[in-house]
Amino acid sequence: MDELPVLNNLCKDLYESVDPQVRHRAEMNLAELSESSECLQRCMLLLARGDYPYGPMVASTTLMKLLGGKTSITSIQKLELAKYLLEMLGQAAPQFPAYLVTSLCQLFARLTKQEWTYQTPTENQSDDAKIDYPFRDPVDSLVKTINMENLEESMLAVQLLTLLVSDMNSAAGMESVNKHRKNLSQFRDDFLYEIFSVSLNFLSENVDRNLNASQLALLHAVLNLNLQCLLFDYIGSLTDETSEDNCNVQIPTAWRSSFTDGKIVQLMFKLLNKLPQESSEKVMTIIAQLASIRRTLFNGTERQAYVQKLVEGVVSVIMNPEKLSDQAAFHEFCRLIARLKTNYQLCELIAVPCYSHMLRLLAEFTVQSLRMMEFSANSTYFLMTFWQRMVTSVPYVRNNDEHLLNVYCPEIMTSFIESRLQHVESVVREGAENPLDDQGSTLQIMEHLAIICRCEYEKTCKLLTQHFDQNANIWMNGAENDVNTAIAEGRLVWLITLIGTAVFGKTTSTSSDAHDKMDGELIARCITVMRFNDNRLQLSNSTVPLKGNLRLEVSFIHMLEQFRRAYIMDQITRASTVYDTLESELRITEESDMLGVIVQKILTNLKFWPSNSELLDLSLSLLKDLSLGYSAVRKLFRLPEVQLLLNNHTADHFIFLGPTIDYQTMKQRTTFYEALTRLLTTDYADDEEMLQRFLRPLTDTVEGICSVIQNNCQGIEEEQLKKIITGLCRDLRGVAIAATTKTIFQILFEWMYPEVFNIMQFSVEKWPGCADVVTPILRLLSEMVQNRQQRLKFEMSSCSAVLLFKETSKIVSIYGDRLLQLPEVSKDRVYKERYKNIGVIFLILKNALIGAYVPFGVFRLYGDSCLQDALPTFCKIVHEHTT
């Protein structure tokens, strides 16, 4: 046993040493333990005789890692280990630190889960004999252990059961999904309801008792056990826990008696009032799960009584909000409110006697929450979800006067608008966090507001107009460095974003001509401010133009995008009255004029913000979306701005097309050329000269690169050459994506062959380790060999498909050979510099092989080895990176 002191020292160094090198060395040595053939014996040695607490802790984590791989531990060994763990915990758990107890309990749970279906082997077992499942026996004992008389044993039993239920609910450590689902169903049918019932009875028996600190701790642990039972995946659906969309709790029908009378709901609200603040979050989460129980578990009468108890409980919480002072509990309460409408229909909520009282309290609660931005920032989404779903359900209510949403929704919109405008002052003066920085969360909430604001839309429009006029006047006439001007500018960002959201709301409800005119008034104000802003921009040496505000520009694009979604659609058959106001104020008489405004804004952004990837992405995505519309793209093509763009897409006119831009921003060039090519080829009438004219700037680039390569790259910096080649490949990939017809793709290929392929071959040979260059090349190849819409089904007399595959095979083979010779890279760079490109290589070969456009038998007939060169490259890469 000479190795025990060595192992103990390594464990101690891992957890106690302040020297990072010592810790790293200990970690590496202990990592070898899990790969050793004697891993189990050494871990058992550490569990039994290792220095407390680090020895058992390392043994526990190592065994968990061992169980997660393809281990050679037999079921008998696992059974012995599980028994030893139970014995060890039973004897010494009170002396162990909490983290060690948790780790050992998790190990026990994993062992039990993996061998849940294991049966004790017996000889000559008759059909009537009871099957013995040795790993299940401890679970029965643990369930019967829970009581208030023996706190230590009960606490350990509850912790073991909680971790077992939680681990059973996860597929971690299981060989297959099928085995996981089999365990899931057997555990659910045989044990889960008993565990849930015991936890529920325990809570019910002790809710009115005066408990000491130890008893309260046990009660809190039982609450957690109860919650894990309600979070269980009863139907084995492997649901995404990050999503709130599918939140039904599929309680088995056999459990029905525990829920239909609604007593469990009353119990949980009672526990919420009785228990101390630290238990509030857990209880709120349980109630949110109870509000999400599938509707089919109840009949109509039971469901109405159940929802009434939920509503009464919500009312009691709002009227006595002390428990909501904890931010986590507040967040869970907001989730509960959202679930209330997700699972129940508006007519069922209206039928509750205290509906009007509840709605008034919820409206007041929402208004107060919106004004406490720092406290409720992450919870606003759930509150808005409730109101959005309430408004969406209004058309299905027979009597519109009953729902009262027309009374409270305007109050909520007013509160949201005013709270955000007031917060701008804190952002400017105090440097507070700006919610607009998180664009994703902002857009999520805006999707809800688009529906809510359409309830009494006149009031929302009046409020937006009032604030917009006031702040636009201050901003346009104020001094540049004045704080009030900065505040007004920040408020305009919010107002323009909200106006775009309100206009998009047209698509979510039945709109009238009066509402369209209001939209026109709002959009006219935004366009006026947008033109004023564009006229004052000045180019500078930095990435931000003089007098430029990125958030303001993003809000303009958002507004234009929402207008496009609402009013520029192929389904619109008549002119909208939105253009009446736009015509009187801005001379925008029809859709073509508005398209001109949008394109002009996109061109302005390309000119003044060439280095800002975020704004370029938003602007070019808008241009791409416009190019996808059947009628819009034809109107776009006739615009003088678009004709100017199609004839002048060079670095002289747009800086972001030049080599001075960083690699990240260059990604937007693909979207740019995809949109331009789609605009050009929408009504393509075999005008090859037009295409060649469009490709002329790219032709000049190709000729320039070929000349540099012939001169051995003299007279140009290597980094500049890399960027020029990268930009070319990104441009051509955009063109290839939009070249969806056989004729256009044939012209593109003939234009590229052979010069562009030679450039790509040169680049992968010269810079195989530079992912910024190689990845765009491989992405272009992947697009070229993809038989999108049968565009590669050339005529029998054409050899283009064969030539394409030959060039592709050549580049893939050369890069594959270079890749295998490159040195290893650190873990933080390995994906970008190795795995990403390997994945693209596999995609190239897949697209080429399944495209059904190359007669592969021809290669062997004519002695061409390009197919034989490509496939071994694939095999070598697979072998190198899987061994």
TrEMBL record:
One of its GO terms (molecular function) is nuclear export signal receptor activity. GO terms for cellular component: cytoplasm; nuclear pore. It is found in: Cytoplasm; Nucleus. GO terms for biological process: protein export from nucleus. Keywords: Cytoplasm, Nucleus, Protein transport, Transport. The keyword Oxidoreductase does not apply. Residues 424-663 form the Exportin-7/Ran-binding protein 17 TPR repeats domain. It comes from the Eukaryota. SUPFAM superfamilies: ARM repeat. Its main location: cytoplasm. InterPro entries: ARM-like (IPR011989), ARM-type_fold (IPR016024), TPR_XPO7/RBP17 (IPR057947), XPO4/7-like (IPR044189). It holds the Pfam family TPR_XPO7. Belongs to the exportin family. This is Exportin-7/Ran-binding protein 17 TPR repeats domain-containing protein. The lineage of its organism: Eukaryota, Metazoa, Ecdysozoa, Nematoda, Chromadorea.
